[in-house]
Specification:
Elements: H1 5-23, H2 29-49, H3 52-57, H4 61-82, H5 85-90, H6 94-106, H7 111-120, H8 123-137, H9 140-148, H10 150-171, H11 183-205, H12 213-216, H13 227-240, H14 244-277
Helix pairs in contact: 1-2, 2-4, 4-10, 4-13, 8-10, 8-11, 9-10, 11-13, 11-14
Length: about 280
Amino acid sequence: MLPSLPTALTCLAFGLHWLGDRRGRRRDRTVRRRALSFYAGLATILIALSSPVDALADKLFWAHMIQHLLLLNVAAPLIALGTPWISMWRSLPLGLRRPLARTFVRSRRLALVRALFHAIARPTGAWLAFTLSLVLWHLPGPYDLTLRREPVHILEHTSFLVFGVLFWAQVTASPRARTALPYKRRIVYLASAMVTNIGLSMYLAFAQHPLYAPYAELAHRPGGISAIADQQIGAGLMWTAGDMPFAIAIAFLIHRLLAESELRTARLGGALRELGRI
């Protein structure tokens, strides 16, 4: 039996990273910690897309929401923390890396791709891509299409993961992020995305009727719940569990901001004491 596409791609990513990591010279604690974070992100993708959760997602809206949350707010930040790009690139033969890099940098045909990548790799572009894709794919029309057309479903999950990694790379200050945001701006960056998630959750929770036809048309659902109850459970998961990664990241950033402020205050006090002795 052939592995599913998510399983095959995840195994390929793991193999490329492991090989590139072995070729690297540095194997200190930081490198190992980043590798473990990346592998945890890959494991999360498998749980979301190649486990019973995936089978339930076709029949239960709340199971589908678990998939989305795992991709956007668990796998994506873990991968961003893992910064796997250099290791995966290093795993390719040098004779392949050079022409690929040369083509991407110089090819006129790829000018639009380069411009788009540079735009969404910056904080504003990454935020817009993350939040707009979250809202767009949960509108009834696009959402129904993902359940009826597998290629569209693959595109949805791919966009969640790619835009999620780009979004969280700005928060984790990934070495490959285009701009390093100061702590205060990262907090605002996260809080504004959190507000978008809350707004979407409220839209789903307080709808007076099922919004998604494929779920409403099902004669039977696991557990015997109604379509509207299924939708409300999914909205509740998005509202609570979906906000937790944002809240945890904001709390961590506030802690770092206060720690730096205390350190600056201590240094300033030390400098003033030294001046007083002169």
